[in-house]
Amino acid sequence: MSTEPLLVARGVQKRFPGVHALAGVDLDVRAGEVHSLMGQNGAGKSTLIKILTGVYARDGGTITFEGRDFRPTSPGDAQRQGISTIYQELNLVPSLTVAENLFLGRAPRRWYGIDWRTMRKKAEEILATFDLRVPVDQPLGTMSAAVQQLVAIARAVQTAARIIIMDEPTSSLDSHETELLLGIITRLKERGLGIVFVTHFLEQVYRVSDRITVLRNGTLVGTYAASQLSKLDLVSHMLGKVPEEVEPALQPHVESQGPAVVSAKGLARRGVEPFDLTVHAGEVVGFAGLLGSGRTEAARLIFAADHAKEGTVNGSQLRSPRQAIDQGMAFLPEDRKADGIIPELSVRENIALVVQRKLGFTVSRAQQEKLAQEFVTKLGIKTPSVEQPVRLLSGGNQQKVILARWLAYEPRFLILDEPTRGIDVGAKGEIERLIHQLSQKGMAVLFISAALEEVLRISHRIAVFRDRKKVGELSRTTLPEVMKVIAGEEKPAEVSGVAKMAAGEDKHAL
Ligand SMILES: Nc1ncnc2c1ncn2[C@@H]1O[C@H](COP(=O)(O)OP(=O)(O)OP(=O)(O)O)[C@@H](O)[C@H]1O
Ligand SMILES: [Mg+2]
Q1: Number of domains in the chain
Q2: Which domain holds residue 85?
Q3: Least packed by Cβ within 10 Å: which of 76, 207, 257, 317?
Q4: Atom of ligand 1 nearest to the CA of 393
Q5: What's the average model confidence in pLDDT over 211-232?
Q6: Confidence at residue 256, expressed as pLDDT on a 0 to 100 scale
Q7: Distance, CA 47 to ligand 2 centroid (Å)?
């Protein structure tokens, strides 16, 4: 391992209208190190990465790569020079096949054009080194989010990269796939590559990082050896608070005794075994389980987003989400790209959207502003104003806007599927508190998250799913207890994520 850094950035500046996104940031990346970039939502992580990869030009500061001035003009240019990225927003083409995506712009050619056979064969070989076996001539869009993520990584690694930058690559991966990716990161590091890693999962940071650089509000807090920095210190650097002020996580709250708001009986469809579920007013029920265990599928059946073959919700068979909504239900889906954010609309419009629908378009502009402002404050949404188009917000702040939309709506029953994905540790606590407050006001909540600790903190009761079957309900429980039920006592957890991903199913279960 050489000690001279591959990449040296000093005093990097970037301004957007109304936002000083980077106000003099330094970063070194060495060969053979994993360097994590940490900070709250909107701290400037993605912006710095986009400057390093030629998406944005810097307004000031210097960057050298392998000793030379580095000023990439496009991601392609950065990649040719040796810096590859996997963005927070995947830049793949869903309608092209897996193989085509892997070789986008670099397809093997012969005199007659693209050499499809070689391309397929090579694609299979490459993916095999990632422990991934998928039909490479199927459109990428038919694969799960996890497969798409791993394909993006495989592609980045194929190019002759010296540095690979990963911006929240694990945010839509389950634990098995995350393990796979962390393993890949370690292997790339051993090959002498420099890895820049961004995630909001602290455990992952500590699993792989050699060094950690913390940004706050576009400024550099510092660079630390991971082994010398405690989690508490890291969080306090990120939030700008002394460790004593870092608030303890929410404690599981007392059981609620409200009337049943939703009562599902024998709900089932092909691939989801019949299950019952009752959620009371003022109660938060958590869903726990592995990839493909059926958490999201079960929630979709309750909301009639999928058609139930048998069973009832509140005594009748719901035929469409419309009917579920009429009964006071709402659903924050896990795939926000597809059915969530409206990028061109403002923060205000995105937040007011369903409230407006509920009240029949009688919400005045002033009321919308007040509502939006209230949630911007409550959730700490970082934006120059509520009139900012949502697409200009950082990833985590976009997420908060969508969540605000449903919290503002205050339905009788709210289903939240992975609501805190991509959200920083500080804001997660705020969101948990807000959900808690709403439930105390009588709202019933169904909370789905891959982060078990989170499910435990926030839920009065936990329903566990395994192999597309509800296998138990627990209250006043502990992490080991839930894990035991998830695994099934008979045999230890056998996570077959890759096999399931290969079948291209489980798009909704990640
Ligand atoms: N194209 C843009 N136009 C205007 N403002 C922008 C643009 N891109 C980013 N910003 C703003 O710059 C700041 C930094 O955003 P950035 O995306 O770098 O944050 P981040 O640290 O990656 O956050 P997250 O954890 O939420 O992904 C934010 O306030 C964001 O709203
Ligand atoms: Mg980001």
Answers
A1: 3
A2: 7-245
A3: 257
A4: 31
A5: 96
A6: 63
A7: 7
